[in-house]
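Protocol step 4 of 5: obtain the predicted structure for the target chain.
Materials: sequence only (see below). No template structures provided, no constraints applied. The aim of this step is simply to have a reference model before the mutagenesis design in step 5. Sequence pasted as it appears in the construct record:
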Amino acid sequence: MTAPRSHRLPPPLFTARSRAAWLVAAVLALVVASFLSLDLHLAAFLSGEALAGMGRFLGEFFPPDLSPAFVRKVAEGAWETLAMSALGTALAAVLGVALALPASRLHRGRGLARLFLNALRSVPELVWASMLLISAGLGPFAGTLALAAHTSGVLGRLFAEAIENAPPGPGAALRAQGAGTVRVFLYATLPLVLPQLMSYTLYRWENNIRAAAVLGVVGAGGLGQLLMFHMGLFQMDKTATVLGAMLALVALVDAASFGLRRVLTR
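Step 4 output (structure tokens):
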């Protein structure tokens, strides 16, 4: 007699017929093989000599340089980093919407558009900045363009999926009335997916504020350039001030983005 459905035992964790179980086993085997193939000196890393050296290195960061002139300089770098991330994200959002339309399954040129989006986001921001420094020169302009190029590939893909998953009813009703593709998108699809697009954009802004702080390492301006300069001179007190400004800026942007996303999703 078959047991009632509510009293059946849960399936075993591993069965030969379960594809998911074999997939998990393959991933675990890959992780173990990765650890075995890498030359990790964990014992040396956690040795007393290494820990003492790290302690001495961290002690050089204190006290940070809080002189008014240097704090003003760091504040200017923080503002530059914030402006780079905001402008780069705004440009990426506009370009992402433009690329999302042909990249969605609603259009015939989907394959070519998605290939272009993959090419944009497969190149990291640091590589984009290194290439753009040749044409745009040192400074925040190259960093802004690098953020816009990489982020437009990410947002374009996310926006395309949001457009594909939008309810087709309002668009079909407008098409039945003779409305064109542009009007259908502006008056039917866009109002439905706009909160989701804004949420994606704000989330990428959080990531870009971190990336903008690092892009200065290659000469793209902002806090990263200050960090590279003072760390290269082993001025650890000034480096500590720059790192503190980075942490404060990231926390501020994260809090603002989280609050805006909560407002949009209500």
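Step 4 remarks: The chain is about 75% helix and 0% strand. The CA atoms of residues 47 and 53 lie 10 Å apart.
Proceed to step 5.
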